[in-house]
Design a protein that fits this description.
Elements: H1 5-18, H2 23-43, H3 50-61, H4 72-90, H5 109-121, H6 127-146, H7 156-166, H8 170-189, H9 218-226, H10 233-248, H11 252-256, E1 263-264, E2 269-273, E3 280-284, H12 287-299, H13 324-337, H14 350-363, H15 368-375, H16 380-383, H17 391-396
Antiparallel strand pairs: 1-2, 2-3
């Protein structure tokens, strides 16, 4: 077993070079290995024993590094040390039992894990959505890895070649390109590749017709809000969640992650960055919303260390953050309780209330840019879908057909 630190680092670099790692990734791992050598020289610990790696990581990351979330650079340091440990134990920098996971090349594993965590934490993606995205990313990363191309060096031609071998539908190419672009944007933020890399992902179009949004009238929303038992703790919480969706049109993730620090009681505003888009938004703190928040905090919310205002009341999860599924189930239950007609035949989750406020604002002649700002949409095209359900607005655009006194008949029919 090799115990000389310099020799281990030398062999590790050599094996990485022979295995064809992407140059940029390889250089960053090499930098971490060099920091190990610098630390070894400073501490005069030339024999690399099992305890050395733990001491080094504790000195670089802190004693409690295992109990906190690591940055991408810290993860790279962990990768470098794991390679040295594996090399010392097995003679190879790749542990035999951990060569691949989810079908991803090894150099992308920590990046993919970070992306998955971001999807879960910030965008509240469901497991099925995460698995679908990982399936696409696994295939794509294996494809470019097989060609010897890194994310940094990738060109649009590589994406076209990937789509060609998949021979999928327009919808598959559209969805896959969006997933890949989103992942590459995340990689660029983590400084894994240049900021120009996402521009190499071509845009594909989909011919699938988007379904019209479900809309509930003002009267139906009033019935829904009146159906809550606001005398109980759970009723106060459920009313608050639904009120935020109905009055502001917030997405479920923004409702469930709202913190007290986002509320400025003196200025009467609520400010935060949207979970999905990252856009900074600011809303007036309406009296009914402020009163509902205070009522829940004082008379309903369990004692908890959670920063988010809305938490679970179930005994086994009391005080913990709630899931999107819980919010959806709550609104669905009260749609039925409120006696809203044909609610089962329409979409009836929190997003339907978001659609409703947008469409109702449009029906009240609120300009589209204002609606876009309220919803926090990045692109005006996203907001324009609500034009398709503004029937009254469309009627104003109709024109009368002029009467033709002298007309010819074509096609043999009159």
């Amino acid at each position: 077993m090799i115990t000389d630190s310099k020799e281990l680092v030398f062999i590790c670099k050599k094996q990485m070079g022979e295995m064809g790692y992407a140059p940029q990734y390889k250089d960053r791992i090499f930098a971490k290995l060099d920091s190990l050598i610098a630390w070894v020289q400073k501490e005069k610990l030339w024999d690399y024993t099992p305890g050395i790696s733990k001491k080094f990581l504790a000195s670089e990351l802190g004693i409690e590094y295992k109990q906190r979330k690591l940055s991408y650079e810290e993860c790279l340091l962990m990768i470098a040390i794991n390679k040295i440990d594996a090399l010392q134990k097995t003679g190879s920098i790749v542990p035999l039992k951990k060569k691949k996971r989810h079908g991803f090349p090894e150099e992308y594993m920590f990046l993919v894990d970070g992306y998955r965590n971001m999807m879960q934490r910030e965008r509240c993606n469901k497991r099925a959505t995460l698995e679908r995205k990982e399936l696409v990313l696994g295939s794509f990363l294996q494809f470019i890895h097989g060609k010897g191309v890194s994310l940094q060096d990738m060109k649009s031609e590589d994406v076209f070649a990937f789509m060609a071998i998949k021979d999928g539908s327009d919808r598959y190419r559209y969805d896959s390109s969006n997933i890949i672009r989103d992942f590459v944007e995340f990689a660029s933020k983590m400084e894994f590749c240049d900021s120009d890399a996402p521009k190499q992902i071509p845009h594909f179009t989909s011919r699938v017709v988007r379904k019209l949004p479900t809309v509930y009238t003002h009267d139906e929303v009033k019935l829904l809000l009146a159906s809550f038992d606001r005398a109980s703790a759970i009723g106060k919480r459920d009313y608050l969640m639904t009120l935020l969706a109905a009055v502001y049109g917030w997405r479920a993730a923004d409702i469930l992650t709202l913190e007290l620090s986002s509320i400025d009681w003196e200025k009467n505003v609520i400010e935060f960055n949207q979970q999905k888009s990252g856009n900074h938004v600011c809303y007036p703190l309406l009296p009914e919303v402020g009163n509902a928040i205070i009522d829940y905090l004082r008379n309903g919310r369990p004692k908890t260390e959670q920063k988010c205002i809305i938490v679970s009341h179930v005994t086994s999860y009391k005080g913990e953050a709630m899931s999107v599924a819980n919010l959806h189930a709550t609104i669905t239950m009260h749609m039925k309780k409120a006696g809203i007609k044909n609610w089962e035949g329409r979409r009836h989750g929190p997003h339907s209330l978001r659609h409703s406020i947008a469409t109702n604002m449009l029906g009240a002649d609120v300009p589209l840019p204002i609606i876009q700002q309220v919803l926090g949409h990045k692109a005006p095209e996203t907001t324009q879908i609500y034009l398709s359900v503004d029937i009254n607005g469309l009627r104003k655009c109709t024109f009368s057909v002029p009467e033709f006194k002298n007309h010819q008949v074509y096609g043999g029919a009159e």
